[in-house]
Amino acid sequence: MTIFDVDIDALTGGTTDLDRYRGSVLLVVNVASRCGLTPQYDKLQPLYDAYRDRGLVVLGVPCDQFGNQEPGTASEIDEFCRTTYGVTFPMTEKVEVNGAGRHPLYTGLIGGGPDIRWNFEKFVVGPDGTVTARFGPQVEPDDPEVVATIEKLLPR
Question: Can you tell me which residues form the catalytic site (predicted)?
Answer without folding.
Answer: 35
